[in-house]
Amino acid sequence: MKNATRILIVEDNRTNRMLMEMLVGQIPNCVAISHMSPVDVLRDLPTLAFDLAIVDYQMPEINGIELIERIRSEPRFADTPFVMVTADGDAGTRIDAIHAGATEFLHKPIEPVEFKARMRNLVRLCEAQRDLVHRAEWLKIEVDKATQELRHREEEIINRLTLAAGYKDRETAMHTTRMAHYSSVLANQLGFSADQCRDILLAAPMHDVGKVGIPDAILLKQDQLSSDEKLRMNEHTRIGAAILAGSACALLQLAAEIAETHHERWDGTGYPNGLLGEAIPLVGRIAAVADVFDALTSERPYKKAWPTDRAFAYIKAQSGTHFDPRCVEALLAASNEFLEVKSAYPDDPAEKRYVA
Predict the structure, then answer these.
(1) Which has the higher per-residue pLDDT, 141 or 308?
(2) What's the confidence (pLDDT) of residue 186?
(3) DSSP state of 319
(4) Count of structural domains within the chain
(5) What's residue 352's pLDDT?
(6) Which of the residues 4, 37, 100, 349 could staple to 68 if both were Cys, CB 3.0 to 4.6 A apart?
(7) What distance in Å separates the CA atoms of residue 25 and residue 143, rounded to the nearest whole number?
C-alpha cells in the first residue's frame, strides 16, 4: 500500500494481537506489523520500519516500558508515537511509561471504537510528520540548487576577471593557470579540505589582477625594471586587493587576500605591508611559493627558465627567510605533482601534454 502508515503491534497474547491487527486493517491507509516477542523486535530493529507503535505493558522477558526506552534510543525513532496498552491503572506505571516515551494509553480489554478513534488521531499526526519531513527534504534540495547556481555564477565572474587580466599581460597568461594549480597542490599537502583546495584553485589566478592598473610601459618592458619602475610594479598587490575587496562572495574575498599578500616574505621584508611570519595569511604564504616557483621555471624576455632542480633548491634555501618553512616542506613533498602541473600547462599550447 503506497505511503501507508505502518503500525507496529507488540503483544504476546494471540487473541489481543489478532484483534488489534483486525482493527488496524479497518483504518484507511494503514498496515499492521505484528510481533509477539519484544526480544524479536529488538533483534529486528536495525531493519524494522514503522511510523507508530502499539506496545503491551505486561510481556515476558522485557516489559513495554523497557521496550519503548530501548527503541527510543535509536535516533530514527526519537519522534515516533508510542501507545502503551495496559490493564494496570496505577498512576506510577503511567508516569514511568510517559518518561520512557509513551505518547498515548489504551486500557485492556480493548474497546474497538476507542481504539480506532485514537489510532486515527495518531495516524493523522504521523502523516503530518511525514509531510514536514518531505517539505524539509524538498527545501534542502531547493536550497542546495540555489547555492550551486550562486556558486557557478561566482566561478564565472572569477574566470572572466582572470581572463581580463590575461589580456593585459598575455606573455604570462599560462603563469596564472600553473600558479593556481601549484597553490592547490600545496594546500592539499598542508591538509586543506578538497573544497578549500578547489577555492584556492579558483581564486589564485587573480593574484596578479592588479597589473591591469600598471602602465604598459612598465608591465610590458622587455628589459630589467629600474628601481622606480619596480616600486610602481609592486603597487599591483594593492591595486588587485582594491579591485577584489568588499565583496560578499567568499571566493573574491579569498582572491583579494591572495592578491594583497602573495609578495609578503616570511622574514617581514616583503611588500606591500611588510608582514612577518604567521601574520601573513596562510593562503598568501602558499601563493608566494607557487608564484616564485613558476616565475623561476618559466622563460621571460629578460631571462631563461631555470631547471626545476635548481628552482627546488633555491626555494629550499630561502626557507625561513623568503618562505614559510611549512610551505617549503609541502613543496618538496609534492615535487612530482609540481612537475606534472608544469608538463600539463606549458606556455606554448602546441606543446601541451595532458596528465591523467
Answers:
(1) 308
(2) 98
(3) B
(4) 2
(5) 42
(6) 100
(7) 40
- Domain hosting 129: range is 5-140
58 φ, ψ to 5°? -90, 100
Distant-in-sequence, close-in-space partners of 324: CB < 8 Å, separation ≥ 6: 266, 277, 280, 282, 285, 288, 289
Which CATH number fits the domain that encloses residue 192?
1.10.3210.10
Is 233 in a helix, a strand, or coil? helix
Please tell me the predicted confidence (pLDDT) of residue 95.
84
Same structural domain, 262 and 192: yes
Using one digit for the tens of pLDDT, what is the confidence trace for 250-304?
888 999 999 999 999 999 999 999 999 999 999 999 999 999 999 999 987 777 8
State the CB neighbour count (10 A cutoff) for residue 268: 14
Burial class (CB in 10 A: 0-12, 13-18, 19+), 329: middle
Domain contains 163: no
Q: What tens digit of pLDDT does each residue of 38-68 get?
A: 999 999 999 999 999 999 988 888 898 899 9
Burial category of 84 from C-beta neighbours within 10 Å (exposed 0-12, middle 13-18, buried 19 and up): buried
Q: To which residue does cell 631547471 refer?
A: 307
Position 351 scores a pLDDT of: 42
Q: 268 and 285 in contact (C-beta within 8 Å)? A: no
Q: Looking at the domain assignment, is residue 153 inside a domain?
A: no
Residues contacting 336, CB < 8 A, separation 6+: none
Kindly tell me the burial class for residue 171, based on how many C-beta atoms sit within 10 Å of its own C-beta (0-12, 13-18, 19 or more): middle
Percent of the chain with pLDDT over 90: 47
Q: Is the pLDDT of residue 354 over 50?
A: no
Do residue 198 and residue 333 come from a single domain?
Answer: yes
For residue 11, give the CATH number of its domain: 3.40.50.2300
Q: Are residues 326 and 209 in the same domain?
A: yes
Measured CA to CA, the distance from residue 187 to residue 254 in angstroms comes to 13
Confidence of residue 232 (pLDDT cuts 50, 70, 90): very high
